[in-house]
Structure formats: C-alpha cells, structure tokens
Amino acid sequence: MTPVLTDERVFRALIEASPADLTIDGGADPVWMPEAIAATRATVLSVPNANHSLTIPGDWRASLEAQQTVFESIAEHIERR
Known about the structure:
The chain is of the alpha+beta class. The chain has one domain. Strands 1-2 form a two-stranded parallel ribbon. The longest helix has 21 residues. The protein is flat. The relative contact order is 0.19.
C-alpha cells in the first residue's frame, strides 16, 4: 500500500530513509505526494495508475501484472541487501 504521507511519522520516516529502504506507491493514489519526498534516498517504486491498494481499477489483468512487478521488485531489493 502507498505510504500515507499526511501522517507526519510516515513522512518523516521516508525523508530519513536510506537506499536500503524500499517504498512502493500507487501513482493514482491521492495520498501519494512524490514531490513531498523528493529528497528521500529510499528506493521508490511507483505503480502507474494504481490506487492505494496498488490495484488498477477496472483492469484486473493490469492489476495482476502490477502485483507481479511489485513482488519481483521486493525480491530483488531483498537480494541486493
């Protein structure tokens, strides 16, 4: 799920994050504000057209592909650590 940047603790954690941290967001989620965390050093994966639950409304196939990308990205991120 997209980090809720309106929560000060979440916002601060992303600002202070390192490249060892991974955040994943739904590009169409209204609580995602990439400009607010432009200074983060975290690894950011944005899922285009996805909502807060990282699904793409009305398109289950695109949602499935997005989930596959998310899980592959998580696995790759873990393997690099």
